[in-house]
Write a structure and sequence with these properties.
The complex is a heterodimer. Chain A is of the alpha/beta class. Chain A has helices at 58-65, 89-93, 111-122, 126-139, 155-167, 185-200, 212-218, 236-243, 248-264, and strands spanning 2-18, 25-42, 47-51, 73-79, 85-86, 96-99, 173-177, 204-208, 221-226, 229-234. Classes of the chains: A alpha/beta, B mainly alpha.
């Protein structure tokens, strides 16, 4: 469904450094790789987890996979609904539901108005769009607050509205950046259940999280990344076996210790 | 581009803006209520004040006026067909004191001389009521004189008109009432229209750019299957429409208020001027066109400015200078000689102002109007293209925003040793200009040459103070390093070469700008009466230190962080040239600026540049002060015109010196 090949993302920052002659100043553009050769794959009907400490490059990776950013090198291949590889970002986005902590909603609209607007942007016919909105409100239990302005909703309600945003165009690929962050147990479970449900429908879910217990029972495959590189990949059970640990949390610690130890040497 | 997608986004932007209370208040409530309230309120208050003036009684004492005359004056004052105000005759023993104590409003004295009765109306100009009383009394006396004249004419059986008014004259205005009103409107309407378009555009422009970023909906927008261009266009169209609506509302409200005012005081002030409103209809229709085209331009510019801001507050800071610039353009309508020409028709802002002015003066030059509207479209398209490119840039979309202006952060949060950014340079140069303009010119007028010293000290202190405030590393910011001896030698040779070449350059320029070159000389004329050491200190040493710190220190280092050496040298030199605020001096100072910037770039130290700068200024001083001996020993320096061979000789020697200097650098 989605395949990334050797993705690199370079950022620059300006640093003033001494030049060749001691007396001259030079503005040096320091380059650093937020992502350094990441390849991954997610098939239809899979939930793939991206794990890693803060600053590892998770958000940048997901932004590139969601076509919000361009990679410096490497390519992202996403199969369209027709089964062909598509490279035009606009057409690719048509088939992705992207959610992150940074995708806030328009406060001055109600959920219903927002979904109608999105329907027009995604090119869904009016009649069909209304049906879809009804269906989504049903599934996410939003009938009660669907016509309130989004600024009046609670955190959990807002997150559900945000999920509804990703659902309106019925994409085949979901990219979620820490979707359960800061939510109460009920709202978080609703989202976990939603992901499971989509998996059963044959959709692909790619998501990053810091909740390792959640990832352990939810994910079919896990990529652990650190400093822009993949340091371990495999199914949760494989990773636990390789690291000889009983749960993913311990496995994560073992992997990170190995990597950091390697760095020190 | 998909119009359907764009339209969907556009509808949302509009909905969003219309649901924002702040925008609505700025857009609808302010124009619809504020102008009428202000203007109607003012009119009503003025009328009320006038009415109370009419009702009041003014006490006037007649001193030494014969009873018969006094009675005649009183009769005139009482005659409602001639005088509107109520004058009451009072007696006062000491009228001067009574007036001072404000017991009476005025008193009239009379004395006789050369067969004339000379009346004097004494009043207090500091007391409004007394002024009114005096005015009324002047009217009364005028009437009285007319009466006396008539009487005398009858007495001597003269033809009153022939003797008393052998000559009459009056102004006959050949322009129609509409034309004169149009001329008047053309002066201030452009300013009001431009301001109202700006006020209407700026708020939503901030809202859709910095506001969107602040609310965090930008990333959501990026997940949608739309191109950046569709995104920008939807925002741009929404803001332009709001700006146009706001401007039209402003114009209507303002127009309504003025019509009210004219009709209220119409009988007296407009002097029975009858206006055919229909004459203005083409102008007004054209105005709508102008408003829409100009709204496009203002919107594009303000969106371009706001896009760099990460928050509403920051965007406000950035956009305020833009607003001032636009308003300044609006003022240009009041300049008498500025008109729509082929040149002004292409200058943004000015062209719109001039077109509006032209419209109200009934000057319909359709070719020029075409250029104006077309150039606005071109500028708008260009700006939108820049905007679309900026919106494509990930550093703008995902970065935390730009923090180029360090002074806006709290001092306690500033990092020690940080260097100033380009924003800081702009701010500092503006500060320097402001300080020079206000404090500097005041000091120069007040204290002469020592005022100039104050000016120079200010230029020296400002960059130091700024750098200290932002806690920058002074050594690096101002390149305060010991120079190598070779750099000092190089500075001397470069000075000699640059000085000679500059001589020729200045000569060439003075051919083109003869008059302004003379002005430059006059500016410095008064300066050279002081002792030579003082002259040297004030015109050579202090500028060398201060301007070097400002330009080759602060400005150079800040720009050098972002730009390559060549770009930095050219940029700093151009700024240095502009700083001297004259076309004539721009070329020569920018030319010298290149050497100065080269010196600091190559040597890494500010001091060789200071030496170079000092030598250049000192040489100029010597030539001016010791004009005669210099002319004797170096006739070439003061010669009016040089032969080709002389020019070539100077240039060759100059070039050799520069090469030697370059070798040592």
């Amino acid at each position: 469904m989605i395949e990334a090949k050797n993705i690199q993302k370079m950022f620059t920052r300006n640093v003033l450094a001494e030049g060749k002659k001691k007396s001259s100043k030079k503005s040096v553009k320091e380059e650093f790789y937020a992502l350094d050769g990441i390849s991954l794959q997610a098939k239809a009907g899979e939930i793939v987890g991206i794990l890693g400490p803060n600053g590892a490059g998770k958000t940048t990776l997901l932004r590139i996979l969601g076509m919000l950013m361009q990679p410096t090198a490497g390519e992202v291949l996403i199969r369209s609904k027709e089964g062909e590889y598509e490279t035009d970002p606009v057409k690719v986005k048509q088939n992705i539901g992207y959610l992150s902590g940074n995708t806030k909603l328009y406060h001055r609209l109600s959920t219903r108005e927002m979904l109608r607007m999105l329907g027009e942007v995604y090119g869904i016919e009016k009649q069909q769009c209304e049906e879809r909105i009804g269906h989504i409100f049903d599934v996410l239990d939003m009938e009660q607050f669907g016509d309130n302005r989004i600024e009046k909703l609670s955190t959990g309600q807002t997150q559900r509205a945000n999920i509804a945003r990703c659902l309106i165009h019925d994409p085949d690929l979901y990219i979620f950046d820490e979707p359960t962050l800061g939510l109460d147990i009920l709202s978080a479970d609703a989202i976990v259940n939603f992901m499971k449900g989509q998996k059963e429908l044959g959709k692909t879910v790619l998501y990053s999280t810091h909740y390792l217990e959640e990832a352990q029972f939810l994910c079919d495959k896990i990529y652990m990344i650190y400093q822009g590189k993949i340091v371990r990949e495999g199914s949760p059970s494989d990773i636990m076996q390789e690291t000889k640990t009983g749960n993913l949390r311990d496995a994560f610690h073992v992997v990170m210790d190995q990597v950091k130890g390697g760095d020190a040497q | 581009m998909s119009t359907r997608k764009m339209f969907a986004l556009f509808k949302r932007e509009l909905k969003d803006i219309f649901r924002d209370k702040k925008t609505l208040i700025m857009m609808i409530v302010v124009p619809l209520l504020l102008y009428p309230l202000l203007i109607i309120g003012m009119t009503l208050i003025l009328n009320a004040v006038n009415a109370s003036r009419m009702d009041a009684t003014y006490k006037v004492a007649f001193v030494g006026v014969e009873e018969e005359t006094a009675a005649a004056l009183e009769a005139i004052a009482d005659d409602k067909t001639r005088i509107d105000y109520v004058i009451e005759r009072t007696d006062a023993d000491d009228p001067g004191q009574a007036l001072k104590d404000e017991e009476i409003h005025a008193y009239v004295t009379v004395e006789q001389a050369d067969g004339q009765d000379r009346y004097e109306v004494h009043y207090l100009s500091a007391w409004d009521d007394s002024v009114t009383a005096a005015d009324v009394m002047m009217d009364v006396l005028y009437n009285y004189r007319e009466d006396v004249r008539k009487e005398r004419a009858e007495q001597y059986q003269l033809n009153e008109k022939e003797i008393l008014y052998p000559v009459t004259y009056e102004l006959a205005d050949a322009s129609s009432a509409e034309e004169s009103v149009g001329n008047y409107l053309g002066m201030f309407i452009p300013f009001l229209v431009i301001t109202s378009i700006c006020l209407g555009a700026i708020y939503p422009a901030i809202d859709v750019t910095a506001g969107e970023r602040e609310r965090g909906t930008l990333e959501t927008l990026l997940t949608l299957p739309v191109t950046n261009f569709e995104m920008i266009m939807s925002k741009f169209l929404a803001v332009s429409i709001i700006a146009s609506i706001s401007a039209v509302l402003n114009i209507c409200s303002l127009g309504g208020a003025f019509i009210f005012m004219f009709s209220f005081i119409g009988g007296t002030a407009a002097g029975g001027m009858k206006l055919e409103i229909a004459t203005f209809i083409p102008a007004i229709l054209f105005m709508l066109l102008v408003v829409i085209f100009f709204a496009l331009f203002v919107t594009a510019v303000s969106m371009c400015t706001c896009i760099f801001a990460k928050s509403f507050k920051e965007a406000n800071n950035y956009v305020t200078p833009v607003l001032l610039l636009f308003m300044f353009g609006g003022y240009s309508a009041m300049l008498p000689d500025l008109e729509l020409t082929n040149v002004t028709a292409a200058i943004p802002i000015i062209n719109m102002t001039m077109m509006m002015k032209g419209l109200f003066n009934f000057e319909y030059n359709y070719a020029l109007f075409g250029i104006v509207l077309l150039s606005n479209v071109v500028y708008s398209v260009l700006t939108i293209m820049i905007l679309a490119r900026l919106y494509n840039s990930e550093s703008i979309l995902f970065a935390e925003g730009f923090t180029n202006i360090r002074i806006f952060t709290k001092r306690s949060e500033m990092k020690k040793g940080a260097l100033a950014g380009i924003g800081d340079v702009v701010l500092l140069l503006c500060l320097v200009l402001l300080v020079l303009f206000y404090i500097g010119s005041f000091a120069a007028v007040k204290w002469g040459i020592y005022g100039v010293m104050v000016q120079q000290l200010l230029i020296l202190l400002l960059p130091l103070a700024y750098a200290w405030y932002i806690k920058s590393d002074m050594k690096r910011m101002f390149s305060l390093r010991m120079p190598k001896p070779s750099a000092v030698i190089s500075a001397v040779f470069l000075f000699a070469g640059a000085f000679l070449c500059n001589l020729i350059l200045a000569g060439v320029i003075s051919v083109f700008f003869r008059e302004s070159a003379q002005n430059v000389e006059e500016t410095f004329a008064g300066l050279f009466d002081a002792p030579f050491a003082v002259i040297l200190l004030i015109t050579a040493f202090l500028p060398a230190v201060g301007e070097e710190l400002l330009f080759r220190g602060f400005t150079f280092t800040a720009i050098r962080q972002k730009c390559r050496p060549l770009t930095t040298i050219l940029l700093v030199s151009a700024l240095f040239g502009l700083y001297h605020m004259s076309i004539v001096r721009f070329v020569t100072t920018a030319f010298l600026g290149v050497f100065l910037a080269l010196l600091v770039e190559k040597s890494g130290s500010i001091f060789p540049g200071m030496l170079f700068h000092f030598l250049i200024n000192a040489a100029a001083d010597i030539i001016s002060v010791y004009e005669e001996p210099m002319a004797k020993y170096f006739p070439i320096l003061t010669k009016e015109s040089l032969s080709i061979i002389e020019v070539a000789g100077i240039l060759v020697v100059g070039a050799v010196c520069i090469c030697i200097g370059w070798f040592f650098l």
